[in-house]
Structures are given as structure tokens and as C-alpha cells.
Amino acid sequence: MAKQDLILLAMNSSPTLDLMARVLQASEFETAIANDHQALTKSAHEAIPALMIVEEKFDNKDGFAVAVDILERFPTMPIIMYSESGDPELALNALKNGLSGCLQPPLKTDDIVNEVQRTLNRARKLGDWVRREVRRTTASLEQKAKISEAERVKLEAIISNIQDGVIVLDENHRILLANKTVYGIFRLDGSSILGQYVKDVIPNADLKALIDRTRNGSLKYHEINFDDGRVYNAQYTPLPRIGSAVTMQDISYLKEIDRLKNDFVHTVSHDLRSPLTAIMGYMELIERTGALNESQRDFLERLQASVQHMTSLVNELLDLGRLESGFDTRRESVHLDNVLEYSLNVFESQIQNKRIQLTTSVSDDLLPLRANPIRIRQMIDNLVGNAIKYTPENGTIKVHLFMQENQIIFRVTDSGPGIPQEEQGKIFEKFFRASNRPADVEGSGLGLAIVKSIVESHQGRVWVESTVGVGSTFAVILPTHE
Ligand code: ADP
């Protein structure tokens, strides 16, 4: 037999209470009676009734207050208010207080049973619905948890097995994650480095420089060099609400290829210099051996121009080789405004010939640089020379030199043809020449590569901002103390 529903009657002893108990028992309900507040609380806790009937004036207390108190502890408990008074407002009050129904005299057997049955049915439906919803939500949460756990395991497996080193840091630069490759790269013993400050467990100057300089956004990637010749390219990525990630790829083999290529270019350029000098010398001698006719003179002049072009190319390649191999260690106090002045003096006639309007602005708080004056002059000559070379007649060039937080900024802005956006990333590579350069402008494509090497050997940065058809700005930042 199905378990009977227990109805708790919280009523004062009276014939009505007896009647209700009898009627309910006759309708197959189990009943329990609580005559005072204490008995009510005990039964509500221990017997857990399916429904309660509370009398409006119960144990000398306000029945509504008693009911509200029970509802606070058992919010889904169906409660029916019974009142002797026959107050017409009772039903409304019961609803307002969150009760499920009410009973008033004259009490008929059917009224009692129907009201109890109706209230129980409603409570059951509500209970079923709540259980269904809870089951549904739990199932969906379980499903989601399963998916995200599977994703986490997958991600962890990928990160720990990839060939690149991956370190994830929190906002205070404590290590949240470091994969196996990182332990190998920095030759760490197997003990865990999680939770520790990166500078304490990986004392590598290049890594430290990358992390420190990313704070002000000035650096996003950096090479990490090891004494045994290994080189890694490290990239820094900020991770919102986590901190940051540093990934490292082994580029030792690329560096080796680059070194071999540079050695080759350097050797070839070096070996070409002597025959070129000889050719130049003999060409000068030809003129002294006897009179030349007009064609011979014309051919000789063309030969001389070509050999001069080759010689300057070879010199530029040798220069670049010297800069890249780090031989440029000469450092002395250099006043950039003076160097700029000398450079502009030399270009004066070219500027006038092309009727270029030149404006110069040099701030008077410039600090001196620790630099190689010859290289700095070469850098300025290349940038100003390019601006003049690529700017058409009657164009404009603006040169700015100013301080910004202990750094000197040098900017050359021209109204030349500009450089296509997609080519701007390659502009500092050796031999690269932009596709939109004017056909009659000669060049080797080495000038900007030399500028970049010079700037970097002085711990600075160079970049271009350019719009095709409007012009270009080449900007250089140089720290005033290394
Ligand atoms: P080049 O000897 O060809 O001038 P550079 O290395 O100095 O070699 O410059 C590389 C290329 O960059 C040039 O060929 C040209 O296409 C482009 N470039 C350099 N400076 C400018 C400029 N001021 N305006 C437009 N294009 C420029």
C-alpha cells in the first residue's frame, strides 16, 4: 500500500479538531496533532508532514505568524489556515502570507477533504516540477563540467608536449604553468618551479629584459642567447585577467644559416674589393696613355660609373658585415644636433636643386649620446638622403630632434611616394626595394639595413610610418645612457 500522507493539525483542542482528524483519517490520511507551539516545531522537524492545518489563534499566538515562521524553514510546505471567526478577508490574508488555502465554518466533510486534496495536488505538481528542473539543470551542468574537464586535459596535453617552450605568468610574474620544453631550454633540474617568481628560478638576463620591457609595451619579442650557441626567439603575450605568456622557439639553426650567409657575403665582398680597385686604377691610366675619341670617352665614363656603383655596394656590404658581427664598439659623447647640422650642410645643394622645402626643429634640451659618431652620421645621412632621393621636386621634408624621457627621438618626414603597407615590414631587410619606388631612383637596398644595424647596436629602435601618395616618416629612438 502506498504510504499515506501525514497531515499535521496545529489546532487548539476542540470538537472541530476532533472532527477534522476523523474526517481526514476516514479519507485515508494519517494525522498528527500539535496542541502547542513546541509540539508543532518538533513534529514539523521530525515527522515532516505532507501538509499542515494551522488555527488562526493557535496556542495564544497569531496563527499567521506561526505559519510564516514555518514557511521560512520549510518554504515548500503547503499550509491551510483554519479560522473560527468567519472573517471574509481570511482567504486574502492567507494568500498574502504565502499560505496555500483556508477553511472556515460551516465545515462540511467534503469541504475539508477537498481543500486538503486540492492543496496536496498543487504541492505535488509544484514538487514534481522543481525536481524535474533540478534534474535537468544538474544534467546540463554535469555535461558542461565534463566538456570543460576534457578540454582542460586536452589543452594541458598539447601545451606540455609541444616543442615550443611555454611559460604562463600571473600579474606578479609568478609561474602558473611551464611545460617540459622550458625545463630543457633553461637546463632546470626536475623540481617544480610553479608558484615561484620567474626571476628567482630562471635567472636569465634576456628573459628578464623581455619581461621587464614589456611592462611599458616597448618590447614584444626578444632573442634569448645561451653560451653554448643556442638561440631562442621569445614572444610575450599579455593574457587578460591571468597575466602573460612567454613562448620560445628554437631558432639556432636559422641563426647558423644567417651566419653562414653573412660570412659568404662578407668574403665575396672582401675579395671583390681588390679587383675593383685595380679596374678603377687602370681606367684612370687609360686616359693618360693617349687621346681618346668621343665614343671611347663616353664608354669609359659609363664604365667608371658602374665600377663606382659596384664599389659602393661592396663597401656597404662590408660595412653591414662589420656592424652585424658586433665589431662596432667605439663609444664617445656625441651631440646629435651637431651631427645633423653637418649632414644637412652636405645635402644643401641637392635640396636646393630639387627645390625641396626643408624645415628643421631641434629642441634645446638634448642630452649627449654614448655612441660611435661615424655610425650616427651614417644613419642620419641614410635617412635624410633617402628622404631627398625619394621626394619629388618642390616637395617637403621635416626633420625633428627632441628628448622623450631620457631618449632622443629623431624623425624624418617627407612628402615622397610612401611605402605600401604590406611592404613596410620588409623595408629594413637587405636588398629590399619597394615596388612603387620611382624607376629612375638608383639604390642598392642596403641603406635601411645599415640604419637598422646602427640603431640596434646603440640599443635603439627604428620604424617607418607611411601612406602611399602622402609620404613617409622614419623614426629612431636612441637611449641617452646604455
Ligand atoms: P635604396 O638604396 O634602394 O634607397 P634603402 O635600404 O635605403 O635602399 O631603402 C630601401 C627601400 O625603401 C627603397 O628602395 C625604397 O623603396 C624605400 N624607401 C626608403 N626610404 C624611402 C622614403 N623616404 N620614401 C619612400 N620610400 C623609401
What does this structure look like?
The protein is an alpha/beta fold and 482 residues long. The chain folds into four domains: 6-130, Response regulator (Rossmann fold, 3-Layer(aba) Sandwich), CATH 3.40.50.2300; 162-250, PAS domain (Beta-Lactamase), CATH 3.30.450; 255-324, Signal transduction histidine kinase, dimerisation/phosphotransfer (DHp) domain (Helix Hairpins), CATH 1.10.287; 332-479, Histidine kinase-like ATPase, C-terminal domain (Heat Shock Protein 90). Helices cover 47% and strands 21% of the residues. It has helices spanning 15-26, 37-46, 63-73, 90-96, 109-161, 180-185, 198-201, 205-214, 252-288, 294-324, 336-353, 373-390, 447-457, and strands at residues 6-10, 30-34, 51-55, 57-58, 61-62, 79-82, 101-103, 165-170, 175-178, 221-225, 231-239, 243-250, 332-334, 357-362, 369-371, 396-404, 407-414, 461-467, 471-479. The strands form five sheets. Strands 2-1-3-6-7 form a five-stranded parallel β-sheet, sandwiched between helices. A five-stranded antiparallel β-sheet has the order 9-8-12-11-10, sandwiched between helices. A five-stranded mixed β-sheet has the order 14-16-17-19-18. The longest helix has 53 residues, at 109-161. It is rod-shaped and about 150 Å long. The mean pLDDT is 90. Bound molecules: adenosine-5'-diphosphate. The site of adenosine-5'-diphosphate (ADP) has 20 residues, from helix 12 and helix 13.
